[in-house]
Amino acid sequence: MFFRKKKKEEGISEKAKKTAKTFDKIMTGVIIGGAIGSALGVALSDKKNRQKIKKKSQEAYEKGKEFVENHGEEWAKEAHKKSKGVWSTIKKKFFQIISSDEEDF
User: Fold this and answer.
1) Residues near 12 by Cβ (< 8 Å), separated by ≥ 6?
2) Is 1:28 a contact under the CB 8 Å cutoff?
3) Whose CA is closest to 13, among 104, 105, 95?
4) CA angle 32, 35, 25 (to 5 degrees)
5) Torsion angle, CA of 60/61/65/66, rounded to 10 degrees?
6) 5 vs 10, 13, 28, 72, CA distance in Å?
7) Which long-range contacts (CB under 8 A, 24 or more apart) does 79-85 make?
8) 22 vs 11: CA distance, rounded Å
């Protein structure tokens, strides 16, 4: 998911690839677990808390909608510029760490 590419990574061992796949699965589990936990927390809370959550959610939605209407395109362009290459850098560092750990064995 996070580290998959159509092109094969050069110089990456099978153990490092397997570790990357395991990392993908863990991150997917964390994201799904967080979503399920949040949904259950809201569903199992008392009525007063649900009303507060609903009110705050509506306020946040309106603020976000207003922001996107006023600054969305500008923000998206800036975010794209700043994030360009971040994943590739993280991936390179991750594989360097995995490769250096293999040399210790």
Assistant:
1) 95, 99
2) yes
3) 95
4) 15
5) -40
6) 12, 15, 17, 29
7) none
8) 19
For residue 49, is pLDDT > 70? yes
Going by C-alpha positions, the residue among 67, 63, 68, 41 that lies closest to residue 52 is 41
The full set of domain ranges for the chain reads: 14-104
Q: Residue written as tokens 């064995």?
A: 105
Higher pLDDT, 105 or 15: 15
Residues in the chain: 105
Within 8 A by CB and 6+ apart from 67, the residues are 75
DSSP one-letter code for 46:
-
Q: Which two tokens stand for residue 44?
A: 């199992």
pTM: 0.43
